[in-house]
Amino acid sequence: GMARRRIGILIGVAIFGVIASAFTAYILPPVYESSAKILVESQKIPVALARSTVTASAAERVQLIKQRLMTRDNLVQVIEDLGLFRDRDDLTVSEQIEILRDSTSIRPIAVSRKRARRGNNRRISAFVIKVSFNNPGQAAKIANEFVTTVLDQNLRARTERASETLDFFQQEEERLSAQLASIESEITEFKRENEGALPDSLDFRRSEIARLANTDLQLDRRILEMEEERGSLEEKLEKLGEGEAGPPPESAKGRQLQKMENLLVQKLAIFSENHRDVRRLRAQIEALQAERVADSPNAAPEESRSAREADIKRRIDLLNTQITLLKDQKGEIEKKRTRYEESIQRTPNIEMALRGFYRKHDDTQDQLKEIVRKRASAETGERLEVNQQAERFEVIENATAPEKPVSPNRRKILALGSGVSLAFAVALAFLIELMNPAIRSAAQMERQLDLRPVATIPYIMTQTERRRRRFWGVTLAIIVLAGFPLLLYAVDQHYLPLELMGQRIAERTGLDEVIRMIEARL
User: Torsion angle of alpha carbons 149, 153, 155, 156, nearest 10°?
Assistant: First the structure.
């Protein structure tokens, strides 16, 4: 009953929906799709023998290249080189860039390991550059232009990264070499400044302190002996008398004795009492003294006493000189021992500082060895990239101009629009029925009021009402079937071509994306 009562609304809405769907299918511009396929071929030389320094995966590099490819400057250059959108003066540069960006897609394709193993035992992946455009020739040109750009950018990016890696390790090697030379200079300067307190000579200094202590003890013993001998000589001198006579004239033996005694003083300043040279000189001195004593009886008693006094005084003077020399030598020994002891006290701090220098030197040297090893690997990686023997992109399928558009599918759009229009007409009629809750049948009256009517009289339409309804139905049909196409023709001829207007409406409302999504799901 609802369908009979609302047949006009159902037919009108359905016809309008079908016409609108047909118009939409007609005005949507055709979209042509062209694609190119690029293989990512693995390194030819075994990785165990030569490794590339570009470690980014193919997926990462594809994403990076995509970001560079879709930059504004690059897209503007493509638009200018290929002469795109020359007939679209209504589009701004930003709108042209957005259209071209939305029309391009880069999709990676992973090849299974099993398939790669059946091939050439090299794992290969690929990616597809796909361009959708309203001109088939331009779609192919755009795709091939992007392929060329991708290949150039990949080669340049890999080479630059390998070169930057090598430059980095070369700079690090130079820096560490200079740092190592600086540390070695610091160690040399530190050793020079602390030459007497180095740990290497610690045992020597300790042995020297022990030797100097022994020498000092021997000097004390010799000084004591000489002082005792000087005391005995002074007693002998006192016994000879209080008067002091001048020394007698020196004879040849006396002068020789004087020279030998002076030589003995010099020897004693250097050697010990038991040295063979010292013993030999003492024996000669004693022999000369004995000869002089043997010659003394022939002299006068006064001369003999004077000669003995002079001899004793000379011997006392000799002993004083020897004692002075030994005390000076003892002072020098004390200074040396003090200096050695101070250096020994400084040695632990010097050793700690040297260990710090050596540890820093060893760490820097280890770092330098590691950098040298990595620099050699970086040189190998750079040679792989320069010779294109590392992982590389290879075009296996160039983009060609498509013969048929991939969208829109006008039959699907017409069928889908007609179905949606019919469903909308039914829903509209049902809504109108709900908004007019009149009782139209005996069954409806019995169901709603629980009253059964005795008789029902249908609505009787007069002849005038029938003619009026028929007139308005025919008029509406003529308006819909004839007026709408005339309106479209007028718009196409006098305002804007329907194809261009449909393209603009689809772009600005996003209808083209909706239709693509619907087509993809169907």
Answer: 130
Residue written as tokens 């007028």?
490
User: Tokens representing 419?
Assistant: 């179905």
Q: Phi and psi of 393, rounded to 5°? A: -95, 140
Question: Given the DSSP bridges, would you call strands 32-41 and 104-110 parallel, antiparallel or unpaired?
Answer: unpaired
Pick the closest to residue 158 from 74, 49, 72, 40 (CA basis).
40
Cβ–Cβ < 8 Å for 49, 131:
no
Buried b (16+ CB within 10 A) or exposed e, 386-424: eeeebbbbebeeebeebeebebbbeeebbebbbeebeee
Helices then strands, each counted (H, E), the chain: 17, 4
State how far the Cα of 78 lies from the Cα of 64, in Å rounded to an integer.
19
Q: Is the peptide bond before 136 cis (omega within 30 degrees of 0)?
A: no
> Whole-angstrom Cα distance, residue 39 to residue 45?
18
* Rounded distance between C-alpha atoms, residue 506 and residue 504, angstroms: 5
pLDDT, tens digit (0-9, with 9 covering 90-100), for 394-434:
788 888 888 777 776 667 777 777 788 788 878 887 787 77
Write the pLDDT tens digit of every residue in 221-278. Answer: 888 888 887 888 788 778 776 544 444 444 566 667 777 777 777 677 666 677 777 7
